[in-house]
Amino acid sequence: MASIVKSFAISGVEGYLVDVEIKEIYGQPMISIVGLGDTAVKEARERVEAAINDCNYTFPEKKIVINLAPSDLKKSGSHFDLAMALGLLIETGQINSAKFEEFAYVGELSLNARLRSSVGILPMAIAAKKAGLQNVIVPLENVQEASLVKGIHVYGFDSLREVIEFLENRRDYVPERHDIHVEFTDALYKPDFKDVQGQDILIENVVIAAAGGHNLLMIGSPGCGKSMIAQRIPTILPRMTDEESLEVTKIYSVAGGLRKNGGLIVDRPFRAPHHNASTNSLIGGGNDATPGEISLAHNGILFLDEIAEFSKRTLESLRQPMEDQKVTISRVKHSNTYPSSFMLVAAMNPCPCGYYGNEKCKCSDYEVLKYRQKISGPIMDRMDIQKYVQQVDFMDLSNYALGKTSKELRERVKFSREIQNKRFEDIVGVNCNAQMNNALIKEFCHIEAEGQRLLQLAYERFKYSARTFHKYLKVARTFADMEGSAKIRKRDIASALMSRDLEKDRAHMAVI
Amino acid sequence: MEYWIWLKQIPRCGPILQKRLLDHFGSPNLIYDACKEELMSVHGIGEALAESILSERSLNKAYATLEIMEKKKIQLLTYMDPLYPSMAKEYAEAPILLYYRGSIQENMEGVAIVGSRRCSHYGKQIAIGAAEYLAHHHISVISGMAKGIDGYAHTSCLKNGGYTIAFLGNGVDVCYPSEHIELMEAIIENGAVISEYPPQTKSRPSFFPKRNALISSWSKKILVVEAAEKSGALITAQLAKEQGREVLVPPHDIYSSTGEGTNRLLEEGAKIYLHPSQLLFRREPFSQKPVNKKPTLRKPAKTKEGAVILSLFEEKIIAYIRQTPKTVDEIGYALQIDQANLIECISIMELEGKVKSAAGRYVLA
Q: Has residue A179 got a pLDDT over 80?
């Protein structure tokens, strides 16, 4: 009878249980691994043989078949090594353990039989819990990550020898103490909004963007502080819920971002890919359809600096994931779906030379317009808030009051997020004001009479389209939420109407 | 028509010789059919040139050009055409054939507005103001569709319902600079783009002086808005002087490099440009209206209590931003108005058209 050892495989960000079946058959000495494994799986034979020899056991001189069931799903990774080695030793009767069936095994073997860390441990641990498995053996370096899943016992070992001794009851398991609970503190963040001076109006808009989940575009000349502000946005977002943290950690686990001693990710991700990034690196892709920047920015911030320099195709590819909050990557071998709910923060120069509005800018209006048209209408449309970042006179800095701290701002964001959470409690797929559709806008955006009058005025003056109007209403809704107002007041409308600088520029340009 | 195209493209035979040939033979097809001796009887045509004209005798190129022209709706303006302005013919090197898209008016009378591609805000204002004035007085604006001053002149003219002509240094089916594609289409709609170069010709630095000569020869007056030390606009001004056109030049800051060339023109005796009425052909008495309309202050309306406070702010803000554009932050710090009130106030002022924003800064509207 074949020996069966339990392990896991990953598909997308989800893990599933795999039975590693090992059978010794009379025949030419060889080892054959079946079950749609990739090269890393097939190469396990060499590692396993070396590791078994290193532990002074004999590698069987018969025909060996290893099957990874379910056999019709593609599998990848080197983490099957441990299960294969143990299975071989059990199948050939070299070790005797009454309890080996109670465990699932994950880990890559080195040639001298040490256990190396693997990627995707968190989803595997979750899969173990789902499958009703109580005990999981993982490499020592992955214990923290696996321990994030409550309700299972995680055993971490450093080598194959230790695992065997443990299974044969020759060694007791002494868990290493890990402080897995990481406190969310300000000390974790070096950057703070109090460093930003003389940009109060902009910061107010950044806070609104963070509070309502609105995408933000900052326009400014080189060196005016766009990137500085963007880096500080994660510091004012409310901390992630446990569920959100787990989602993010899963993605990073699969993407290999947690390799050593990785625990739960509690900080909201901040991803800033360079404008040279390929479409696949942004969206996800590669041979194994691995997550891209937009998934790594899940529940956090995707910052596209110099957005006008990104290739048009790459930018366009963001549209669908932004709408669906998830992205499906299809490749020949794999098709994976990853979550991608992020806040897009972008920065760009106002014109080719970068100094539009300044004396030294000599760009013609046509050039300015052409430069801005590099960002297509649909993408621009998704940027609810578009603000200029003004150059602050360095000599004047002392005149300005010190900025508000991130902590203060975060409290305000939190306050308005709580109102929104309540509002959208029963609505699937909507968590913040920015995600409201037209029907929801109608339902939740009640405007006071004076505000209505103001909107009318704006309509007559700027001839806004209905679509633009809805944008303003959503932003106005967030302004009202910041102060806990149930209705949208006149001042909220007035403030919202000031949140899209770029749109107004064209009116003053001498262009056809 | 194919004979005209053929005549225009003969190498080493410039517009002056071409016109002599036309005078002698009467029409291009007769030139095409002429024998060597007949050609040599024209003054200035020697044996070598006559032989080269004979060796060029093929209409294939011309037919190919005609085919492209039909596809792209390109028309021809020959020297004999009544639409060819007599004023333009005064120029000895006026080309015998022009390609154009759009429509050419009869008895065209226009004013050229030219200037540097990298222009200052001041230059931009002058170009826009002058073109607007000309459009309102039904005078065509002529320029070169280049970046900067040229582009603004065409744009302002078209926006005010005027007729405008652009002379190109490339084929009329090529758009250079590429960002002017919409402008080019609008010019074709309400004017014409004209070039002496056949369709599909790409622009070359050596083509532009010839283009500039066309601009000046078609215009009665020339406004050189802004030109640095070395600038194509200066070439146009030079040619215009040679052609006896009136050259007008606005004064520039003597410390700025953008106006060096134009200030030099003034020094050399060009007419100083102070008001667009100088561009009219029949001088009207100097307008009493100043060039810049200074914004008039409106009395704040005192209706409700809240409105009174707002208008108090308004007065302060208007006084503060009168001179230079300011950011909202700057206004807030200078006037010590708290942020929420300030945003509300400025937003409403903008809606009421009292202030406007550009590049995130606010100025009086």
A: no
